[in-house]
TrEMBL record:
One example GO MF annotation: protein-membrane adaptor activity
Subcellular location: Membrane
Protein name: SUN domain-containing protein
Domain SUN: 98-268
PANTHER family documented for this protein: KLAROID PROTEIN-RELATED, SAD1/UNC-84-LIKE PROTEIN-RELATED
Keyword Cytoplasm attached: no
GO cellular component: meiotic nuclear membrane microtubule tethering complex
PROSITE patterns: PROKAR_LIPOPROTEIN (PS51257), SUN (PS51469)
InterPro entries the UniProt entry points to: SUN1-5, SUN_dom
This protein's record includes keyword Transmembrane helix: yes
Keywords: Membrane, Transmembrane, Transmembrane helix
Record's signal peptide: none
Length: 268
């Protein structure tokens, strides 16, 4: 019975995903493929857990309700499902590498979802020639779009001279923002094992038609045990899709600053 239930869930969710693609979400094909794998793995966990039919039906309803929501918020729901499954005492979930890969929250500042860099105020690490400046390619080597990518390899960052720059980005969707985050690579992966180029103090403004609203001033700590750090936004009251990041200092590097990845979490 549990095997049949798991198979039915997988088929039903697969059909839903195909319908979503045909309904206009083709541009999110990479995300949908990841979603398909995550849901399949969760269905397998549900079908494998020894227990009553009532428990399986309960978890099935949670999954079905989650995938009925718009695609860009599904990962938030999957995170909630994972927490609910743990609350139901699934002891093997902690050992499941499959479920541990599920992203905890949607990053609306991800290029994969459609986030874009609108403008840059800063100086490139290497002075550009006239042609590059004319074509707007000053930051060709380490462009700010690197902050919106998932690749955390050494050098794949937004690099700018000294310790200050301003970058305006457009999120993939207008969201009620409740968290801002930064992530840097580990010290052992940086050139010369020097992590002082990591950003330190920064501020984030939400851009609206009337005025810019300060979402907060934050400090990224150069903590090797916590490379990904998130900061809460107090009482978000409005949805925004345009943000301006002011990077104001680094951790002591005299020549340049590297910003590897930014996060913007919220609810649609």
């Amino acid at each position: 019975m549990r095997i049949c239930l798991g198979y039915f869930l997988f088929v039903a969710l697969g059909c839903f995903l195909i319908y979503t693609v045909l309904s206009g979400y083709i541009e999110n094909s990479n995300k949908l493929e990841k979603l398909r794998r995550d849901v399949k793995e969760m269905a397998q966990v549900v079908s494998a857990k020894p227990g009553t039919q009532t428990e399986s039906r309960f978890l099935s309803e949670i999954i079905e309700n989650a995938v009925k929501k718009c695609v860009t918020s599904v990962w938030d729901d999957l995170y909630a499902i994972k927490k609910a499954m743990k609350a139901q005492e699934y002891p093997f979930i902690a050992l499941s590498k499959s479920l541990s890969r599920i992203e905890e929250r949607v990053n609306y500042a991800s290029e994969d979802l459609g986030a874009k860099v609108i403008s840059i105020e800063g100086q490139p690490v290497c002075p550009p020639n006239f042609l590059k400046r004319l074509l707007g390619m000053e930051f060709e080597t380490n462009p700010p779009v690197q902050m919106l990518k998932t690749d955390m390899e050494a050098g794949n960052c937004f690099a700018f001279r000294n310790d200050s720059a301003i970058v305006t980005i457009k999120l993939s969707e207008p969201v009620l923002i409740d968290q801002i985050g930064l992530e840097h690579i580990s010290k052992k992966h940086t050139p010369g094992e020097d992590s002082t180029a990591a950003p330190k103090d920064f501020a984030v403004f939400a851009i609206s038609e009337n005025r810019d609203e300060l979402l907060g001033k934050f400090r990224y700590e150069n903590d090797q045990n916590k490379l990904r750090q998130t900061f809460g936004i107090i009482q978000p009251i409005k949805k925004y899709d345009l943000l301006r990041f002011h990077f104001n200092s680094n951790h002591g590097h005299p020549r340049y600053t590297c910003v590897y990845r930014i996060f913007v979490h919220g609810r649609m």
